[in-house]
Amino acid sequence: MTGKRIVVLGGGFGGVAAARTARALLSRDHQVTLIDRKKRTYLCGAFPLLIVGERELLKSSRSLGLLANRGIRYLQDEVQSIDTASMTLETSEGKLEYDYLVLAPGAVYDWDAVPGAEAAYSFYDMESARRLRRRLRTFRKGRIVIGVARMPYKCPPAPFETAMVLSWFFKGRGQQDEIEIHVSTPEPMPLAVAGPEAAARLVRDMERRGIEVHTDAGVKEVSPSGREVAFTDGTSLEADLAITIPVHSPPQAVAAAGLVGSSGWVEVDRRTLQTGMPGVFAVGDVNMVPMANGRGLPKAGVFASGEGEVVGANIAAAINGTDPVAFSGVGHCFIAYGGDRVGMVAGDFMAEGKPRVELTPATARGMRAKERFERDWRRFRI
Ligand SMILES: Cc1cc2nc3c(=O)[nH]c(=O)nc-3n(C[C@H](O)[C@H](O)[C@H](O)COP(=O)(O)OP(=O)(O)OC[C@H]3O[C@@H](n4cnc5c(N)ncnc54)[C@H](O)[C@@H]3O)c2cc1C
Fold first, then answer.
1. Which of 163, 313, 356, 376 is deepest in the core (most CB within 10 A)?
2. What is the pLDDT of residue 2?
3. For the chain, what are the domain ranges?
4. How far does the centroid of ligand 1 lie from the alpha carbon of residue 64, in Å?
5. What number is the average pLDDT over the span 137-159?
6. What topology does CATH give the domain 5-107+250-320?
7. CB–CB of 328/272 below 8 Å?
């Protein structure tokens, strides 16, 4: 038997899970390679707490070099192009051939899609989260506007979570009467994927904290001073601190390879995550997994990881001649409320008809589960 070459593009949740699972199920005749431009990756789920000093950067990161301990070949390199006909990737170091390819490069942010957004703050990557953290240290009073530009974006609860974490933070500093928090979404209700009941509960939780929620209002523009945010419904808000969630799109190398479908993302079989190309799978934020209501599964680390595990297992099954498994779409996402309180958006996202999802109350037990998740992530168990 000649060894197969499994190449994974991307060392985030999806790529690591695929590489880890395939490696554990395959003999050493087969090579598992993971390629990422970065050596160290960050846990984005920590950013809403990191901006208020409740998480630290180093503890929210992991080094991909450690994958070698698990028998995975890690290459720090940039994938410049993908050729599915010749089954090769072009990298800055040369060509890389594959028998199986797992695309897990995540989504990129188009900061220019919203005019003026560079004048606003964000927390959607490590650099912007660090900048916002510095700003919050000295922010004493005024109006904070958190706005989502467009669907889809990573982790649907994150903007609402951040609004509540900020409310808790300013209360702790005795500044609650000096601060006004607004959060806007292009959707008709916050966290629409979880349905009207969960949305109503989330709105109640936010209103109890004095947070004003604006729906059907995507961010259209930020003034050059960063002091005014205009929305798609024609309204606008003055802001002392504007925070935007950027427009997301698939990475250029994936788009240029003709792998993006009419949804704007890589379309895959909802159970196997296989693309239309032989031997090519796509997991995580880069794909569009249709739920029963036709909408895409939320872009979240828990799903990227679950999809990666299914793909890793199925590549091994194809090589070993064993039975494949199917992606279930059952999962949960944490939503921090500040302090030691964490709730969950949990359920069967791929249920027949429509997602069956609930928002669980925020508890100290939820925080312990979140901390466990963060520890597991650092140790490459997720
Ligand atoms: C503020 C915030 C809070 C969040 N909270 C949660 C949460 O509580 N729970 C949850 O489940 N999810 C959460 N998420 C979402 C989660 O972080 C993403 O869904 C997850 O990271 C997606 O994983 P991925 O493997 O698809 O991509 P990524 O994690 O983005 O990894 C992609 C990797 O591919 C590499 N790459 C891309 N292109 C190339 C190339 N051409 N060459 C080489 N390398 C390349 C990148 O360097 C990157 O390391 C949150 C996200 C944000 C922004």
1. 163
2. 83
3. 5-107+250-320, 110-248
4. 14
5. 97
6. FAD/NAD(P)-binding domain (3.50.50)
7. no
